[in-house]
Design brief:
Pathway: Polyol metabolism; (R,R)-butane-2,3-diol biosynthesis; (R,R)-butane-2,3-diol from pyruvate: step 2/3. InterPro entries: Acetolactate_a_deCO2ase (IPR005128). Belongs to the alpha-acetolactate decarboxylase family. It comes from Bombilactobacillus mellifer. The chain has 235 residues and is α+β, with helices and mostly antiparallel strands. Helices cover 15% and strands 45% of the residues. It is built from five helices and 14 strands. A hairpin with a 5-residue loop joins strand 5 (52-56) and strand 6. The longest helix has 12 residues, at 92-103.
Amino acid sequence: MTEILYQHGTLALLVPGLLTGTISMQSLLQHGDTGIGTGEGLDGELIILDGQPYQINGQGQIQTVAKTFTMPFADIHWAHYQPLGTLQNLTSTQLYQHLTHQIQAPNVFYSVKIQGQFQQLKTRSVNRSEPPYATLTQAAQAQHVFQAPQATGTLLSYYAPQLFHGAAVAGYHSHFLAADHSIGGHVLDFSLVSGQVEFQIFDTLQQHFPIDNSDYMQHDFAADELDHAIRKAES
């Protein structure tokens, strides 16, 4: 069975502020039921669970997303997770190190889903901007950070290998949604109290480019400090 990660756009196109929505949620959901992304103009952080898309906006409010909602960048796949076991009492750094050691797939894409109890959770989101769009670095400086001493919910992460840095962010890119919708967004830090861990390795990356967007097609990425901007925005 082929396991496909469908990616629309690249993380690199966010760096210079190419933030026009170039795929609708309706179209994206034809390629999976689980995923993450961001809306046009960096309109919040997205997480898709069991086919239901949620947006965590710049104020931390969580709402479902309409089929007409558009995105410049998103990852999605059909969930066929395999159990990895129960993990307890790990910092985010310890958890990611453990996952890397256990999964042992450093040169391919994979996804990890953790459902459980978290503490010292720190997430972020960004308010939607309007054209002319801010660069990724500028947007990150205006991000809103949310914190919760405790939360029960789902952490959804995608791992990308180093050789694909730019198309995605090398390493783990994680979003979170609390079961009671009290907090969510792009994950900055956390400690795992206890959680059921699942993983799914992809043998195929289906990269979809926004070829109908002239700004993307004509942009010279050689002038952008991609590595620095991506790592600064994701940390």
